[in-house]
Amino acid sequence: MVQINFATREVNCKIVYYGPGLSGKTTNLEMIHTKIPASHRGELTSIATEGDRTLFFDFMPLDLGKIGGMTTRFQLYTVPGQVYYNATRKLVLQGVDGIIFVADSQQGKLQENIDSLRNLEENLAEYGLDLTTIPHVFQYNKRDL
Fold it and tell me: In this structure, is the dihedral angle defined by the CA atoms of residues 118, 78, 2 and 95, taken in order, positive or negative?
């Protein structure tokens, strides 16, 4: 749920990038990080394995400036792509305001995408949420491969 602090005039929104392993979730955050001026973003924090696979999550605060007199910030997160880390995936979804599902559109990845989407739906249900009640975007990544 969007956090609004009227005393400090701040709005904070949590956006989670979700999808199968190696679909490009971390790459999305890295690209956003390079394109946004340092004055409007925080550090990109990653907890990854030796092979650069996201182990826990990636996190990047993003300051959008003032909207309606309120400082507006996005907290961008990714989840580990491997369902093996489901407890972490579920934890990162806590308090989510919006989801970007990053699908790997390469041939042969359909089942991984379906499995990850089902996993997302199951984890959202644990918080009483579903894709009909939470803003979401489907990003079809790797269209050029």
Answer: positive
Most distant CA atoms of the chain, gap in Å: 51
Q: Is the pTM of this model over 0.85?
A: yes
Looking at residue 142, the DSSP 8-state letter turns out to be -
Cα 27-59-107 angle, rounded to 5 deg? 30
Q: Which domains does the chain have, with CATH numbers?
A: 3-141 (3.40.50.300)
Q: Cβ(57)–Cβ(78) under 8 Å? A: yes
Pull the structure tokens for residue 54.
């996201």
Tokens of 19: 């999808």
Cβ within 8 Å of residue 13, ≥6 positions away: 2, 3, 72, 73, 74, 75, 97, 98
Query: What does the pLDDT read at residue 74?
Result: 87
Reported confidence tier of residue 18, pLDDT bands at 50, 70, 90: very high
Higher pLDDT, 95 or 45: 95
CA atoms within 13 A on the CB side of 81: 22
Q: Considering just the CA atoms, what is the radius of gyration of the chain in Å? A: 15
